[in-house]
């Protein structure tokens, strides 16, 4: 019988303490409790996009949690575009923000963003994509990749007797080397379980930030290898995972593939609709839509002059059909 991964979620304790809404100084108007508009911290938040529900929910959580701590948020849309991200920073800096939460998919413009913010004396919190000198918040990418690989290796060992024809990694080069560890880390992860797995069986396709693109490139790969019946697939992000799984279904290759994603959103949606085990086996949990619960206290601490770690990581677990209810997903 196949062993299942059952993991108890342990949320990070480092940044979870929620602070009462303190202010720069008391107005005295309601027993020292009220905060005038002029005294609130103003936080700029450049969201990765506002075109999908996960990004929208992530942004809503950040706005809500900052509000609980007395911080006003000015929210803008980077729309998956580096040039737009730079323009948004210019706009936010004219609004005299006290801090910036930056979710920018294009790492090539990160130095420009940081140069502008450093010149203005504005602290930056960079979500998931490293920006030089910013406080990094989000994924422990190497670890996320490794636990995905270990899980895939265990599946291959139990269901295919350890035979693997290919590990197909659905990439997104524009995000830079740090997020790519989510898929690159799967290689040593598999090797921990199947030591004989070699890197000549690793293939990359560029899925960009688009499910349609990912579906096309994975479809092309499957068409080019009709005789391979032991293919592992791992995608860097949710859209890539969605597109890859669609490609497998359209090609009728469900019996040839075991797929694991990075970020749980698509998997949860799919698993709820398809409760029986099939080729879509799980995803590493990132809990993106709860990021605000950890980010807002960190931003508040930074603005209050308290010490904040250089890197603040989410704790990851492998989400499967077996632990959906346990994790409350």
Task: Detail the topology: elements first, then pairings.
Blueprint (H helix, E strand, L loop, with lengths): L40 E7 L5 H16 L2 E7 L4 H13 L4 E4 L7 H11 L3 E4 L7 E4 L2 H19 L6 E6 L5 H8 L1 H8 L8 E5 L4 H14 L6 E5 L2 H14 L5 E6 L2 H9 L6 E5 L6 H13 L7 E3 L4 E2 L10
Structure in words:
The chain is an alpha/beta fold and 329 residues long. The protein has two domains: 40-138 and 287-315, Rossmann fold (3-Layer(aba) Sandwich), CATH 3.40.50; 141-284, Response regulator (Rossmann fold, 3-Layer(aba) Sandwich). The protein has ten helices and twelve strands. It has a six-stranded parallel beta sheet with strand order 2-1-3-4-5-11, with helices on both faces. Strand 9, helix 9 (265-273) and strand 10 form a beta-alpha-beta unit. Helix 2 (82-94) runs parallel beside helix 3 (110-120). The longest helix has 19 residues, at 141-159. The two termini are 25 Å apart.
Q: In what range is the share of β-strand residues?
A: 15-25%
Q: Which fold name corresponds to the CATH topology of the largest domain?
A: Rossmann fold
State the shape: elongated
Helix content: 25-40%
CATH H-level homologous superfamily name of the largest domain = Response regulator
